[in-house]
Structure formats: structure tokens, C-alpha cells
Amino acid sequence: MIKAVRGTRDLLPPDTALWNLVEDTVRDVFRAYNFHEIRTPVFEETQLFARSVGEETDIVSKEMFTFEDRGRAQSDKGQSLTLRPENTAGVVRAYIEHKLWDRGLSKLFYIGPQFRRERPQKGRYRQFYQIGAEIIGPPTAGSESPARDAEILTLLATLLDRLDIKDWTLELNSVGCVNDRATYNEALRKALEPVAAKMCADCQRRAVTNPLRVFDCKVPEDQPIIETLPRISQYLDEPCRKHFEAVQAILTATGIAFTLNDRLVRGLDYYTRTAFEFTHGALGAQNAILGGGRYDGLSESLGGPPAPGIGFAIGEDRLVMSLTQSAESAQRKPDVYIAPLGADMNIHAARLARELREHDVAVELGDESFRMKKSLETASKLGARYALIVGGDEVASDVFALKDLQTGEQRPIPRAELATTLQSR
Ligand code: AMP
Q: Would the CB of 117 count as within 6 Å of ligand 1?
């Protein structure tokens, strides 16, 4: 038997009803905040991720699904392609490729699968889904303003509230800009020199190549050492500190609670200034529902013009796990089950079903070979509110027996009144 690949999974009804509920809700929220959808390809040139996410990150060094795409002609040189492990790089590539700066500030959102070769465990998949958004544009369009950071964070609070996800925590940090990073990296390197030998192999390497990434370490024995390292908050320059304070002031004024965490650096190299994560009790501390931050130099590092930006990615799998609503209750039930009763009744039932469906009534259709008892049992099992009987007498009179499956009451309804009767339930 061929099964789904380890770390991937099928999403089946009724669970997909919860996914649709989430996606409908986020689309409503994006509309309220004036974001528009972007869809980028599922695979990109490998270089895009190496240059943006960063060679030393876990994502690029260990987790990418990369493959050689040999050209069709023998002489074609192969090209290294990668299934996207995240979507910000693709959005910024598209921003540059389509010169979106001509449009001023771009507020874009996406919903789609991402791929990482991670060790499969609860809440961690190799194909998972992200809902994300980016605000990006030329500095003259206000893309660097702390107001944009606050807008993104407010949107997220709105979204979680609308989904009735209650006990979330927003953790906030500033990871500074290029200037701060140089002095901070130097300080980190110095502090790591005498202790790196006692740390895991990854940290020993990071200590030399990209010391900030030491904070991504999850090895328990390394944590006491990491606790003693200098924090970025002590190295922010004046403009970064002011920017961060302005973000906090807007959040406080709009009533959005947050906690400061100066160990939060996120596992991707492109972040500058504001970085954040939302966690939720049900998922455990290691498993953030979502994360994001500013990436003011990303466009330039990909060959584009200055285009400060800020964005986030929600793990949709984890968001769905955090919902309190059951999948059963989210799934729409048929309004009516049509039961053709006796020979040649399928034809009449099919016509009636089509008419009602035109009026947006959710119809399930039985079969003339079923006896009445089987039809009613099937209708109840599906959770249909009504059963509609289509037999010889009904067809002849054009008046149909409508049985309310909750009360058991049965009434004759003329064909012309069926749609309105079923719609007004
Ligand atoms: P990141 O791009 O690593 O900041 O991830 C953003 C969000 O995507 C995380 O907070 C998770 O909710 C989700 N996520 C990341 N990796 C996975 C995975 N392997 N499986 C499920 N969700 C994931």
C-alpha cells in the first residue's frame, strides 16, 4: 500500500471545514486592513533562499527540499531549485521583479503550503501551511514607520480574537539594524570565545560564522550558557531604540498586551528591528503559532531598491489546532435530503435538486433503489434538517412531502414554495 510521505498528511472532512473557517475569517480581516492577495510559485531558485533567509540558518543549512532541474536539452545546464520553506523571500522577489514600488505601499497576503525537511512531530510537518502578510514599499511611502509595525501586530490581535483564540501571548523584541548588528556580533563573538567549546557542534560553528544564530539553539545543556550572553537590547542605536519605543507606544495605546523578550531573534537572517512571536498555551513554549518582523535590507540584498518591510507568517496547522470549535460543528450540513421513492423517480429528483441548488439550498440526493427507511436514516446521519420525498403522487400533483427530521413533522409543500421554505429555515 502506498501511503502519504512521512511528515506530510491528508486533510479530510470534517477537518477541512475548520481550515475553511480560518481562511474565510482571515480573508475578512485582511479586507478590513486593506491587504490584497499575492500568489507566488511553490518553487524558486535555491539562491533566493540562501541569500535572504541565510546560509547559516537551520532552514537553509538543513531543511530545504532542493533538487536539480536538468534542462530538457542535453546541453542545458542544470538549475538548482528549492520548494519554498517560507514565503517572504518569494514576495520580495516578486516585488522587485514587477517593480511594485511604482504602486507606493504594497500590502500583500498569501495562504499556501511551505516545505521543510524537519523531524516530524506534533505540530511540525514537512509540508505545512502558512498564512502570511507583508507591508513593503519605498521609504517615501512610509514603509519604515513604526505605525506599520503596529498595524501588523494589531491585525494579528484582531485575527486571533475573531477566531476566538484566547490565551495568546505576544513576545516582542528589536534585533536592531546593520549598525547595531556589527557591534553586537563582535560582543557576542567575544563572549562566546571562552565558552563555545562546551556547546553543541552547531553552536561551535555559529559562534564563528554567525553568532546571533546561537540564540536559535534548542539543546537544553546550552541554555545556561546562552543565558549569560550579552543581549541585543543593550546594543540598539538611538534611531532603533526610538523606533522600537514608538511601536510599543502605539500598541499600548491600542490596548494590545505584549511582553519584551530580548532573546527572541527568530531563525532567519533577514530580520531587522522589530521581531515578534505569538505563542499559545495549548501548543507549548517551543511551538509559536506565528512569527514575523521587519526586514529593511532584504530588497537590497536581493538586488532591489531600498524597500523596508514588515511581515509575519502564521502556521495554519497550529492555528487550526488552537481552535476551540469542533470540526463537526464547523461543517455545513445539507439543508435537505431528497429521497426519490420508486421506479423512474431519479429523473424527477435530479430536476428538483438542480432547481433548489440554484437557490443556494444545500442538497443531498438519494437513489430510487433505497427504501424510505434507508433514505431517512441516511438523511439523519448526514445531519440534514429536512427530507423531501419524491414519489409518483408527489410528481403528479407537484406538491412534495417535506419531513422535518428534528420534529418528525411532515407537511405538503407546492413545488413553487420549496426554495423559500428551505431557505428560511
Ligand atoms: P517561521 O517561518 O519559522 O518563522 O515560522 C512561522 C510559523 O510557521 C511558525 O510559528 C509555525 O507556526 C509555522 N511552522 C514553521 N515550521 C513548521 C512546520 N514544520 N510545521 C508546522 N508549522 C510550522
A: no
